[in-house]
């Protein structure tokens, strides 16, 4: 799901290396119909799903000769992930749009490779409980969580005393509030180490990405918030660390390349050969660590606070962040309006404990409506 995005396209590069082991049954995208058609012609899936219904006829006619079924819309995606021929679903949609189809896949017992962190932020309790009930493993694709998962191999029975999630610090590391008041969308989109979709790139500039990852780690590894720390590591070589009860710390290292965590999620428990560039320690002889600057980057504090409150609050946090980032990407608000809007949305929300996908999606919608009424520009 999300085959035309940054993770989706890299995942297809990985898949193309293992034709005997990995076959694509479904491809889906929201609006990039032509790239989806090209991918479908190359990988010959059973089904493709295009999000935008108005593009259905275009995709259908392009794939007429290929014996590929073509559907459109979210409901179709929720249906096709349940097909018998599907063993594993790679959830690489951005944002809360990934929630319903990921949930349907889990409910029907499909293994999950999860890039779509927003899903666990919004509905971590529901998703992880449903996964347990259906014997589903959720394999992390996010590089930090993959690093933790790799460090836990052979250690699953050992209690974790601390998770240390590394952050590059994004394009504005070292800057202070006064210098960031008027940063533009283009400046915020210049990530020093990773090439990713626009939404996560802005999340990296505000450090909300790290906040979302802390919540993601809580649910994936069942570790309480007070045992999860963030450390800024500008070189992005150490992808995260686990400390055990005896004080030993394990980490996973590598060049910043998402293909490695994608491949590990798809081939677990095996490690398959790859031609990814290798880490040369002599070229990366200095690895440094800093405390995150919570004053300059308040989104990280907001994420900890929403998670501490629990219930619907992480869902409100995510909805407000999605709406604010979208407004920032459209040049409608400034950089510091992002945390301002999130803080106002959390303060405005009424605490509740949702128990279904529909209830979470209602809260998401209400939060976004509140923002569009209150912060109309
Ligand atoms: P992207 O914007 O490049 O791609 C998003 C994909 O989702 C596209 O294929 C798009 O068509 C699809 N999509 C968007 N909205 C949709 C909708 N409403 N319905 C159906 N499909 C929709 O994003 P990305 O950078 O690949 O990130 C995807 C997810 O992976 C995000 O949750 C992100 O946080 C996570 N992630 C990304 C990276 C990375 O390196 N890019 C790293 C770690 C985690
Ligand atoms: Mg990450």
Number of strands: 10
Give the low-pLDDT segments.
none
Helix content: 40-55%
Mean pLDDT: 97
In DSSP terms (H or I, runs of 4 or more residues), the helix count works out at: 16
SS-derived structural category = alpha/beta
Question: How do the strands line up in the largest sheet?
Answer: 8-7-9-10
Examine the coordinates and then state which fold CATH places here, giving the name of the CATH topology of the domain at 6-136. Answer: Rossmann fold
Query: Could you give me the name of the CATH homologous superfamily of the domain at 6-136?
Result: NAD(P)-binding Rossmann-like Domain
**Bound heterogens, unique:** nicotinamide-adenine-dinucleotide, magnesium ion
Largest sheet: 4 strands, mixed
- The percentage of residues in β strands lies in 5-15%
Distance between the termini: 33 Å
Per CATH, the class of the domain at 6-136 reads Alpha Beta
Radius of gyration over C-alpha positions, nearest whole angstrom: 20 Å
Secondary-structure element pattern, one letter each: HEHEHEHEHEHEHEHHHHEEEHHHHH
The shape, in one word, is: globular
């Amino acid at each position: 799901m999300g085959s035309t995005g940054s993770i989706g396209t890299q995942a297809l590069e990985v898949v193309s290396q293992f034709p005997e082991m990995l076959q694509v049954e479904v491809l889906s995208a929201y609006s990039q119909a032509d790239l989806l058609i090209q991918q479908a012609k190359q990988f010959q899936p059973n089904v493709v799903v295009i999000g935008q219904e108005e593009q259905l006829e275009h995709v259908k006619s392009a794939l007429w000769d290929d014996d590929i079924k073509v559907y459109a819309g979210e409901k179709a995606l929720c249906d096709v992930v349940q097909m018998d021929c599907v063993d594993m679903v790679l959830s690489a949609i951005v944002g809360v749009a990934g929630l319903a189809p990921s949930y349907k896949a889990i409910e029907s017992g499909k293994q999950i490779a999860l890039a779509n962190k927003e899903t666990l932020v919004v509905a971590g309790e529901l998703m992880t409980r449903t996964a347990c009930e259906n014997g589903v493993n959720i394999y992390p694709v996010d590089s930090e969580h993959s690093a933790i998962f790799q460090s836990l191999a052979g250690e699953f029975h050992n209690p974790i005393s601390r998770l240390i999630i590394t952050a590059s610090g994004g394009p504005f590391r070292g800057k202070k509030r006064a210098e960031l008041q008027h940063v533009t969308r283009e400046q915020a989109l210049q990530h020093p180490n990773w090439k990713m979709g626009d939404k996560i790139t802005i999340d990296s500039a505000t450090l909300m990405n790290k906040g979302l990852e802390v919540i993601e780690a809580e649910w994936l590894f069942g570790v309480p918030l007070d045992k999860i720390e963030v450390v800024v590591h500008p070189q992005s070589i150490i992808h995260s660390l686990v400390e055990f009860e005896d004080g030993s710390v394990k980490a996973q290292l590598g060049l910043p390349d998402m293909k490695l965590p994608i491949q590990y999620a798809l081939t677990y428990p095996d490690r398959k050969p790859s031609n990814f560039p290798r880490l040369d320690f002599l070229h990366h002889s200095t690895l440094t660590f800093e405390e995150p600057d919570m004053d300059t980057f308040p989104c990280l504090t907001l994420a900890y606070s929403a998670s501490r409150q629990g219930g619907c609050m992480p869902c409100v946090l995510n909805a407000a962040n999605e709406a604010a980032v979208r407004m920032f990407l459209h040049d409608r608000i400034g950089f510091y309006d992002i945390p301002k809007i999130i803080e106002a949305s959390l303060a405005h929300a009424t605490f509740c404990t949702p128990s279904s996908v529909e209830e979470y999606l209602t809260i998401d919608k209400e939060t976004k409506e509140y923002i569009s009424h209150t912060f109309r520009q």
